[in-house]
Amino acid sequence: MGMTTLIYGVIEEYGLNHHIKDAIYAHNEKILSELPISDTWPPLSKEMFSITKNDKIKQGPNLEYYGRIIHFGACLKSVESEWLEWKGKFENLLKQLYWTQAHVHFKTEYTDVISFQWRIDLDKWSIKDGNIKPIKEEYWIFQDHSKWEK
Q1: Which residues form the domain of 103?
Q2: Dihedral of the CA atoms 15, 18, 20, 23 (nearest 10)?
Q3: Per residue in 73-84, pLDDT tens?
């Protein structure tokens, strides 16, 4: 019998009212739509993800004030022992998306919330002349706030 592990978080999409934000939004939606419905363990699948969007018809509150939020979550059985494998899958996804920050939180039955953060170093990566460069791992800063990986 395993224990319950919650894994959840957000990816802050690169939008920033930039003139090519529609292309960025379309790109990120395409990448997420191509995630598998069923994935090998530990899973990183399409059903885990959703994007907060403005309602263009009803003109409700602005939910994309400084870009959209890609949020995700799952309730899994004892996935913390496969953290490094799941993290690798998540980072492969980040390499395909356009984003500024990503936050992942783990909550197990025997720990408090464990948090991780990825931030883009905008001195190394940016959009110039409307050209979008792929985001490489050397463009981001990873932080393990709990020192769990050490």
Answers
A1: 4-144
A2: 10
A3: 999 998 888 999
pTM metric for this prediction: 0.89
Instruction: Report pLDDT digits (tens) over 34-60.
Output: 999 999 999 999 999 999 887 776 677
Render the burial of 6-21: b for 16+ CB within 10 Å, e for the rest.
ebbbbbbbbbeeeeeb
Q: Does a structural domain hold residue 149?
A: no
Give alpha helix (H) positions in 61-125: 83-94
H or E element that contains 100: strand 99-108
Q: Is 114 inside any structural domain?
A: yes
In a domain, 150, yes or no: no
Inside any domain, residue 113: yes
Structure tokens at 145: 């706030």
